[in-house]
Amino acid sequence: MLSKNQARTFFLGGTVVFFLIFLGLSWHTLAREVPKQTNAQNLTESVIRGKEIFDKNNCMGCHTIMGEGAYYAPELTKAYERKGEAYLKTVLTVKEPWAPRGRKMVAYAMSDQDANDVIAFLKWVGEADLNGFPPKPDLQSKVPVPSK
Amino acid sequence: MKYKSQQIAWWFFALSGVLLLLQITYGFIMAFAHLGYDGLHDLIPFNAAPATHKNLLVVWILSGFMGAAYFIIPDEAEHELISVPLAKLQFWSLAIVGVVAVIGFHLNWWEGRKFLEIPRPLDYLVVVNVLLFLYIIIMTLWKGKKRTTTSLVLTMGLLFAALLYLPGMIWFDNQTMDSFFRWWVVHLWVEGVWELIMGGILAYLLIKLTGVDREVIEKWLYVIVGLTFISGILGTGHHYYYIGTPKYWLMIGGIFSAMEPLAFLGMALFALAMYRKGEKRHPNQIALNWTLGTAIISFVGAGLLGVAHTLPAVNMYTHGTFVTAMHGHLAFWGAYGMLVLGMITYATPLMTGRKLYTAPGASYAFWLSNIGMIGMTTAFAAAGVTQVYLERKVGMDFIDTQQAMEVHFLVLIAAATLFTVGIVMFVLNFFKYGKPTDEALERA
Questions:
Q1: Closest approach of A59 to chain B, Cα-based (Å)
Q2: Which residues contact A20 (CB under 8 A, 6 or more apart)?
Q3: Residue B23: is its pLDDT beyond 90?
Q4: Which domain holds residue A81?
């Protein structure tokens, strides 16, 4: 039967071994892979400023980005591709709350430059390789189209 | 129990109860906003509500853990806390930082990184506060007569939790790296070191409530926290599937996440086995309900509902939907909410000398809050699955999908009302006990 000492060794040994593996993998991920997958060379000053503005206004408090955040407003990973620059710029600079079908967003009334920076950030996010996320709707083609 | 300094725990428990009620209020604000009732938008913009809801959760649970530590450590180490004035200072600074952070959220003062919204200057105050707390606990343990496994596991959990807060304070220009380290804090807290704290508190409660031999309980405690770390550390990988990190995390995260329920299953089987083995029938049966409840509900909420969406092929569609909220609510409630309420239920009669645990309110609080939370989880599941199919699989527009989900938010509000009645009864019962007294602790 397992003794208390053996149980302690299992706990301490297991923790140390798996934490070291985790550290090694983290190093490999961050130093070798993430810069390639996220096109780190495209992190311009504008993109970085865009991220700061994004964080400072807690956009993740309503939206998700890379699938993370809150679920009150649309996923933003592919917002640039989906909506285009002009649409995004209107939403960010407009002085009245943007409220598509009643769901309100804070009216940030951003300056041209701030809006451009946020858009640059969204464009950069949209170009990152997220292993296939967000997925393409795989049941769309199976929805029957009513005959006219 | 004869350590007067244990009384300080009461203040932390009181803060926990008040903040829990406030957290629930913000939950309702969000649920009503999802139904289109967003009349508070100008005062409380939606993005302030989840930040407040989640940070209050973290603070009330941490306050409960700190109260638990201040109650357990003197008892286990057989030594008074080294300084009650310092502990009081630590309490008030925690409460003030918490309140300032919540007010700040409403004034657009935050860092905007999910779970780590607290602005930087307050982060530093949190660090100072936690260092003071750890100093009091570790010095008490150092000067104490005994260093039991239970107290060491609890302290180790608290110490690692403090250390793991630091990676969340590093600034990165790259969203992916920012997210990567954010999960070091969030995942390695709730699926790692917080489980050490949970294991420590659970072991203490089982020793006290079942009368089973300490050596047996503590041996299994090591096995369970060992399983937690072996599965949980690499289980962090399930947050690295789709954020710009390499594909090998799909395999690593998938395999180790599938093992994560084992630790919770271990915890549940362990608690039930000790309960059956125990010959002592402790009069505070409702504390035993919470203790066994936390072990079982954490297995369902954190273990089973977690693994329900951590397979990479499933998570591709559920990532960033209400399926996450389904798992999150029952997991936090089962693993940490019920644990803190269990600790409060056990400790309050001993500190105040009154035995209100036989009052019907105590029992209603337990059952209503649990039934309510299971109802809420079911409503989140229905909303989440609807969202996954309509938006992710069929490709319906965001707002169309949200409108199709509205009915589930009605059910959510109904279940949450039941939950709230239970929690209000719990908090009222707690305050009915009155303040702790020296005489009560001497008699206990």
A1: 7
A2: none
A3: yes
A4: 40-128
